[in-house]
Write a structure and sequence with these properties.
Length: 213
């Protein structure tokens, strides 16, 4: 995001196309995959810990409100490419689907694979509209600053959930072991991931605007 900000304000020369350059698009896919896989693992741990539906909905509401704020903020900064269904919108919808799919157990692995492959097999222009592209069966990527549709990304979250269930059942020590001291600052970021996600761009963009004055 900081590199994108530098490029957006013309501080990165030569200016690069963050929407088509494989160096950046592959990083975005890798980061998004890790993000959603981790969310799936966390959902599995929460379920194994007895998370109730009311508690789930309280956390879900926080994510949904943040998604709306991202849409509003992006509409101000990028009126032609505002975010109608970005990573937080996707997570909000995928968490519901993942929780409902949790009883499938080991079937989460093949189901996740099928969801990952489905957009390669099925596309239709009807899904290209802004109000339907959240499904993911698009014939072309929409013009937006962030896009994390249900398909194929739900497949990644389901794999994370399946991996979390497997770790909790057979390798619980991996989840329960203490965080090494050098990595504890990263653990703090993980515990407050939503808060840091919501403020980091404001801090980076504000710093660049301040340095430019």
């Amino acid at each position: 995001h900081f590199c994108f900000d530098l490029n957006f304000f013309g501080w990165h020369e030569p200016r690069q196309n963050f929407y088509t350059d494989p160096f950046w698009t592959m990083q975005r896919k890798a980061i998004g995959s890790l993000f959603l896989f981790a969310a799936g693992v966390a959902q599995a741990v929460a379920l194994e810990g007895g998370q109730s539906w009311p508690r789930f909905w309280r956390r879900w509401a926080q994510i949904a409100v943040c998604a709306v704020l991202v849409s509003a903020g992006s509409a101000v900064m990028f009126p032609q490419r505002w975010i109608s269904f970005g990573i937080l919108h996707g997570i909000a919808l995928m968490l519901i689907a993942a929780r409902l799919a949790a009883p499938l157990g080991g079937w989460l692995w093949p189901l996740g694979l099928a969801l990952l492959l489905l957009p390669q097999w099925v596309q239709h222009p009807w899904f290209d509209a802004r109000w339907t592209n959240w499904v993911g069966l698009v014939t072309k990527k929409p013009a937006t600053e962030d896009y994390a549709p249900l398909l194929p990304w739900l497949g990644v979250m389901l794999w994370g959930q399946a991996a979390g269930r497997w770790l909790h059942a057979d390798h619980r020590s991996v989840l329960a072991s203490a965080v090494p001291r050098p990595l504890q600052p990263l653990a703090m970021l993980g515990r407050w991931s939503l808060a840091f996600y919501m403020v980091h761009q404001q801090v980076l963009i504000g710093a660049l605007l301040g340095a430019d004055e």
